[in-house]
Amino acid sequence: MPSHRSAAASLLAAVWLCLGVALLGVGAAPPRPSSSCQRDCGGVDIPYPFGIVDSPGDSSSDCAMPGFGLTCHETDVNGGRRTPFYYEVEVVDVSLQQGQARMQNHISSYCYNATTQGMDASEWRLTGTPYRFADTNKFTVIGCQTLAYIEGAHTHEYTSGCVAMCRAESDGDARSALSNDSCSGIGCCQTAIPRGLQYEVEFDSGFNTTKIHNVSRCSYAVLMDASNFTFQTTYATSPRFNTTYGGVGVAPLVVDWVVGNQTCDAARKNSSSYACVSDHSECLDSLNGPAYICNCSKGFQGNPYLQDPEQGCKDINECTDLAKYPCSVPGTCKNLPGGFNCRCPKHTKGDAQNGTCERNHTLGLGEKFGI
């Protein structure tokens, strides 16, 4: 199960276990959510199958599929702003189309203790869950004398390490070797991880900051979304990295979520639990193991998990957004179910989308009668 080496994080670790199992273990028939359900928390959209409930373990609510219930409450960290949580794990964003969620992952730290003159470790492990990590996540290590490992849990079938050092230049100051935007081993190291990994983080005690604590007291390691990460030199020489992402000791993590742990072919055979219930919806196999999500078919938009004709997959009227779906000849757009067409005006022919409508010189039936 996910755990933290300090007692203070034991509750949060247990939450990760519940969250992973809940999101990937859905198999019951999808309930029909009430129209009165709250769909926003602190500016974060909460689309079904997620929903706001009284407690995350509430399986009786019709606002969310079992296991997808979130709470909405104020936190001191966010200055009193209301924020969605699954137990104590903050949910930053939910994407229906991609089947992903952005959350806040715990940062492991290894810091010099001036009182004991030793090192205090706060190491994190995420095990026992079927969570799948998105490709944008990388194991990131920050420090001036740091070696951290990320290991496959239980069997240790996978082990990788990252070394971050600050080699002193001629002036003897390790900080002089650091460079902004560079994460290549000097103060910062990153490495990709394999799909499906359940992991734990450990620091090598042979690399510590006892002798350089006046320059770099702490080292940090975390599995995080690296798509928008930019290294700053102050990350290695101050606690700034630990507080950069809207809280203390957290960093963004992107995870895949699914509504069933079967392939699409297998899921379709059980209509009582098949989650793609909206008209004009389709099933997509997960790229990260046997599981699936739902999307609206091309030319439709909405929520594929809802049968409600107003909230489910509805036809996109392309003619109302000519900047995205242009017809070069004005006034020739014709909306069609799942698409659109640019039809040339009466008595002309050609391609209205490319602006090649020309007068049709063939006489119509009425003109022939007139003659």
UniProtKB/TrEMBL annotation:
Pfam families: GUB_WAK_bind. SUPFAM superfamilies: EGF/Laminin. GO terms for molecular function: calcium ion binding; polysaccharide binding. Keywords: Disulfide bond, EGF-like domain, Signal. Residues 315-358 form the EGF-like domain. Its main location: membrane. It is a single-pass membrane protein. It is found in: Membrane. Residues 1-28 form the signal peptide. GO terms for cellular component: membrane. This is EGF-like domain-containing protein.
